[in-house]
Amino acid sequence: MAHNPGRRTVLAIGMGLILTGCGVRQATNDVVQSSAPSVPSPSNPPSTVPRLTPGEPPPVVPPPVVPPPAGPEPHRLPSRDEIIDRHAGRSPYYWGLEAPGVVSRIPNGSQGVALTLDFCGGAGGNSFDPDLISGLQRLRVPATLFLNARWVADNRPLAADLADNPLFELANHGTDHLPLSVTGNSAYGIPGTADTGSVYDEIMGNDAVLTALTGQRPRFFRPGTAYFDDVSARICHDLGLIPAGFSVNGDGGATYPAGAVTTETRAAGPGSIIIAHGNRPGSGTGPGLLQALGVMTDAGTPFLTLGDAIPA
Length: 312
Ligand SMILES: [Zn+2]
Description:
Layout: H1 5-22, H2 80-86, E1 95-96, E2 114-119, H3 130-139, E3 143-147, H4 149-154, H5 156-164, E4 168-172, E5 186-187, E6 190-191, H6 196-214, E7 220-221, E8 228-229, H7 230-238, E9 242-243, E10 248-249, H8 258-266, E11 273-277, H9 285-298, H10 306-309
Parallel strand pairs: 2-3, 2-11, 3-4, 7-9, 10-11
Antiparallel strand pairs: 1-8, 5-6
Helix pairs in contact: 1-6, 2-6, 3-9, 8-9
The structure holds zinc ion.
């Protein structure tokens, strides 16, 4: 990836906010020790025993200095160079949708279902389905929205509205919408990131965009095509993000007709993570999804965002 001073500047600002938010505990109580402690003796009693004169009030003994309880270590994100060094020479053995560490279902026996919508951006991908979003609001179905940086750049006021809507949680769908590979693997004909540094850039470029948009870092990352190798999934974790997959493909990359979207979505059960798209108005995704969600909410299916399903 070409050097991009603008992005690095934004990233630096974002990282600064993160570090400021973590706070660094300062020592506030210094303990001063005598270099030559006296030895107690009958003529030189220990100084902690007060010598009282009859009628004299006892001296006021200050309370002992108690150090503050140890808090969690401030979390510092590894730099790009540290990520490159840490994973140098690691050869991935897995390439696909369910790399180790990728969350494809809600853990811990949850009865809930998580709906996730991708907004992929780029040529032909910067649209928005207002009927789908207003339908989710009418049904009160929360969703995690994976926004790509290109989509945000083309829809900034809309992205700000979505960020302000408490029904929705924003998540990271990459900077250039690339499959996440440390060796340039392709998925569906799309070449992935070429190396470890490119993985860092693909994640952290949009991390800075979304952090600036919402005031806090997103918690989840799903690459374009949802393909990871095992090393890039670990890098995601290293950068404090949960790599997100899915268990129910609701709209087949926004290619299914509405009836198929309804059938696939209704196959979701307790713990499912559904993937569909919010950037394909005119496709079968919106009508098919809303049809299914209406039936499922009537039946009492509990929907929740990934963030609520997987507490920090
Ligand atoms: Zn996408």
